[in-house]
Amino acid sequence: MNTPRNSPPSSPSPYQNAPTCSVSVRGEDFAYRELGPEDGVPLILLIHLAGVLDNWDPRVVDGLAARRRVIAFDNRGVGGSSGSTPDTIEAMARDAVLFIRALGFDQVDLLGLSMGGFIAQVIAEQEPHLIRKVILAGTGPAGGPGIDKVPALTLQATLKGALTRQDPKLSLFFTETEGGRRAGRAFLERLKERTHHRDKDISLPAFRAQLKAIRQWGRQAQSDLSEIRQPVLVANGENDRMVPSHNTLDLAARLPHSELVPLYPDAGHAGIFQYHDEFVARALEFLGS
């Protein structure tokens, strides 16, 4: 076990004030934030495409951390983590396992959002003794329809956002209805609550590597989800234009021990952020059952 270079304080704090720590993993420093009670099985958060520590909705993190030890981290080569960003989901999964073991954990739960959900599926299958329970949000199985189009959608939204000075997450994560736009603006405001020691944005080379990994995940043969034996909670909005919502239904149908949260109405890819109160309550119930 590697000892964290900077250990977090023992007392919990809201996510917007949680210190950024680091741990050495095979010569690279992985940035992470930790909060919540110190006992119990830790919940590891696996972030979406281009996401860094500051892209987690603080309402979700704080809500979960009220009862669970929660740890968010930057993937290799992203944000505050050093190294070269992998261009396959499988390599990202190996990194996540090494990170978890570097912190000294023998068993954890996972919450994977979007690309993080791809990673969570690989870890759950390959490390059955390490992973106790899994939450998959806004994600889909390998070879799921529409997933290989995520890179093109993301690049189009990024270009449009640059021309219109609008955060691309508004169109990618939320519906175009009045309610969806309102929820999206509220979410972006919450992401600004941390005003000091913010994480670095993803670099262009790291972004390209992640796009390549997602395209490959979407085009590869479907995985045998029956190999994932852990309890899995599956959630999404009813109108996810990034990872089409029928992928969520497919996960719930094919995973042997799954529970499906009814798809959130008038919500898209970031359904768990739009309905953060409902999601946190359901997630805590699932993790505690």
What does this structure look like?
Helix 1 runs parallel beside helix 10. The protein is built from ten helices and eight strands. Helices cover 38% and strands 14% of the residues. The chain starts with 20 loop residues before the first strand and ends with a helix. It has one domain: Rossmann fold (3-Layer(aba) Sandwich), CATH 3.40.50.1820. It has 289 residues and is an alpha/beta fold. The chain has an eight-stranded mixed β-sheet with strand order 1-2-4-3-5-6-7-8, sandwiched between helices. This is Alpha/beta hydrolase.
Quick structural summary:
With 289 residues, the chain is an alpha/beta fold. It has a single domain, classed as Alpha/Beta hydrolase fold, catalytic domain (Rossmann fold).
Strand content: 5-15%
> What is the fold-level CATH name, i.e. the topology?
Rossmann fold
Shape: globular
The CATH architecture classification is 3-Layer(aba) Sandwich
Terminal-residue CA separation: 30 Å
Name of the CATH superfamily: Alpha/Beta hydrolase fold, catalytic domain
